């Protein structure tokens, strides 16, 4: 079982969420990498059973390069049936994670509901919430592998 946490972050807030989510996944002994979408390789996505994607919200949307990544790179890996999770830091409206989850569902992924949104820089309590999402991802993966 493998998971990947892919993020786009302008000032590090969504990146901090990604690292905390990955540490939650790792704490349950599931193999995981947190990577910037700039560095992610299609084979990393192909190998992953769970894919978490995060972007901060800019102008009421996810950042444009992340939208391109979702529509082109992620869609091309045919992630149907994989476990998905969406997250992101925001300032006031926070649409990006909702839009990411919507795209994941369009691709046939099973997306964890609700998405995880954190206002600005994650506090210690927010980091715990991100770790909790990571644990949830790992537990859902283990459950799926048992029932498969
Ligand atoms: C130019 C600009 C536009 C933004 N637009 C939005 C927006 O439409 N909605 C929102 O919730 N936050 C908006 N934000 C706030 C960012 O989402 C917020 O600062 C976030 O913490 C950045 O996270 P990051 O470091 O992961 O990129 C905007 C910020 C900037 C600088």
UniProtKB/TrEMBL annotation:
Highest taxon listed in the record's lineage: Archaea
Any Pfam family the entry gives: Flavodoxin_1
Chain ranges of the Flavodoxin-like domain: 3-138
PANTHER family documented for this protein: ANAEROBIC NITRIC OXIDE REDUCTASE FLAVORUBREDOXIN
The name this protein goes by in its record: Flavodoxin domain-containing protein
């Amino acid at each position: 079982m493998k998971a990947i946490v892919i993020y786009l972050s302008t000032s590090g807030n969504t990146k901090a969420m990604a690292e905390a989510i990955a540490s939650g996944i790792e704490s349950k002994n599931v193999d995981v990498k947190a990577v910037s979408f700039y560095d992610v390789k299609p084979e990393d996505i192909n190998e992953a059973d769970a894919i978490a994607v995060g972007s901060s919200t800019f102008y009421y949307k996810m950042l444009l390069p992340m939208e391109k990544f979702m529509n082109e790179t992620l869609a091309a890996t045919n992630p149907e049936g994989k476990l998905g999770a969406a997250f992101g830091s925001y300032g006031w409206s926070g649409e990006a994670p909702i839009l990411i989850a919507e795209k994941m569902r369009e691709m046939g992924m099973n997306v964890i509901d609700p998405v995880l949104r954190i206002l600005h820089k994650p506090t210690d309590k927010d980091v715990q919430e991100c770790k909790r999402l990571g644990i949830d991802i790992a537990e859902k993966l283990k459950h799926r592998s048992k029932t498969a």
